[in-house]
Amino acid sequence: MQMTKKGTETMVGLFVVLGMLGLAFLSLKAANLGSFDGGQTYSVQARFDNVGGLKVRAPVRAAGVTVGRVKQISLDPKTYQGLVSLEIKSLYLFPKDSSMKILTAGLLGDQYLGIEPGADEQNLVPGQVVTQTQSAVVLENLIGQVLFNRAAESGSDVPAKP
Asked: What's the pTM value of the predicted model, to 2 decimals?
């Protein structure tokens, strides 16, 4: 049984539409837009000396579970620190002495914000600023430190510049 020209065009059109839907799905996954349902959230802020490559909409995770998203990243004009605003699902209440650190997924993956719960009996409240933070580890700085330390170890072998 042969397909007519109209049937072939319909199949090609259907294939193109499915391909476009697949690309849209992959784009949403790559941009982290499809995996966080708004719902009820509360906002907190954290200050970091270096936010590295952290991006808006990056996941906020506790024990590997996504509990929120980074809402905004700005520079505090008074302290010159990175000020990260984040939205946490209201379902998850963290002690007010919790700490946050910027982590990397894999060796060269995207960065995300990790929350380590504290032990305080009172919880974070909307608008609170978390002060116990650990900045992003910048790979270039680590490499520079290793090279500097190696050069310092073999410093006696290096002739002085005239």
From this structure: 0.64
